[in-house]
Design goal:
Strand content: 15-25%
Shape: elongated
Distance between the termini: 65 Å
Number of domains: 2
Structural class: alpha/beta
Oligomer: single chain
CATH class of the largest domain: Alpha Beta
CATH architecture of the largest domain: 3-Layer(bba) Sandwich
Number of strands: 16
Radius of gyration: 23 Å
């Protein structure tokens, strides 16, 4: 006589359901000064939010050799200041998701952020992604790198560019590099006088007025390009119009360098982050929570 079949339990319900996106009030993309400021203020308002970062938390500010216009410190390195910011974030138990936002779309009244790990939905979005570097034709070039990420002890370094970032990079590399050269097309540096003076003091060679062919002939063990940055909103499926430093859509706010490409200062970014959170809270989150 065959044995009776017992009850076979069904699979757990969550295995049968579609993979729904995780839902938040707010998603902050980018964990530089603007993104961190936004996260701290969102925490203060009690929002259900997340912050994601594909690179190094602290952003480009971490490679600044010296910051002299941030209240509270006459002079402080970018790395040290960002360590303070991140300590503040950690004390508030804000977790930075280390993942890359691949696309943002709008559907059924929500924003869907697709990352390389999961999909996230939210009522509002803050882009604090910084700026994308302008590329040059040299395949071996590094763009605005953290000097600590490249082995440069006893090696030669060529920095292409004449602005603050180029001189910041050159000065940082000069501590351990065998030789550092700054080369540019302009007739003279555009960096602030203090950076130029420090570069000369450290024996960094400065070459000005070079054409494209002359720049292409220069060589070194490490090539660093710092010739400018641009706003990149390709992450958004739909175009976003920015007028007078304001987004046309209140539920999508920009903060930091991506909002002010020509005013790249940490103090400005911090204010942008708080303003962005206040804007989306008042217009897109507050009423839905009452």
């Amino acid at each position: 006589m065959p044995a009776k079949l017992g009850f076979i339990p069904c699979l757990p319900c969550w295995l049968c359901l579609p993979c729904w996106p995780i839902m938040f009030d707010l998603v902050i993309i980018g964990a530089g000064p603007a993104g961190l400021s936004a996260a701290i203020h969102a925490k203060r308002l009690g929002l259900n939010f997340t912050i994601i970062e594909r690179g190094t938390p602290g952003g480009q500010a971490t490679v600044a050799w010296k910051i002299e216009n941030f209240p509270g410190d006459l002079s402080i390195s970018g790395a040290k200041l960002m360590d303070r910011f991140l300590s503040h974030v950690n004390e508030l138990e804000i977790k930075i998701q280390r993942t890359e936002a691949e696309s943002v779309s709008f559907k059924d009244g929500l924003y869907l952020v697709r990352t390389d790990q999961e999909d996230i939905s939210s009522n509002a979005l803050i882009l604090a992604t910084g700026l994308e570097p302008v590329r040059i034709s040299r395949p071996d070039a590094h763009y605005y790198p953290d000097p600590n990420s490249l082995r440069h002890e006893g090696r030669t370094v060529l920095v292409i560019g004449g602005g603050d970032s180029a001189f910041d990079e050159a000065i940082s590399f000069s501590a351990k590099a065998k030789k550092v050269t700054i080369a540019m097309r302009g007739a003279g540096p555009k960096a602030i006088p203090g950076l130029v003076t420090e570069a000369i003091k450290r024996g960094i060679e400065i070459k000005c007025g070079l054409n494209e062919n002359e720049l292409a002939k220069l060589d070194a063990d490490i090539i660093v390009a710092c010739i400018g940055k641009r706003r990149d909103l390709n992450i958004l499926d739909d175009p976003l119009q920015i007028t007078n430093h304001k987004s046309q859509i209140t539920a999508i706010q920009l903060a930091g360098d991506i909002l002010h490409p020509n005013i790249r200062h940490i103090a400005v970014a911090l204010g942008d982050g708080i303003t962005a959170v206040e804007t989306v809270y008042e217009n897109n989150i507050k009423n839905g929570r009452s």
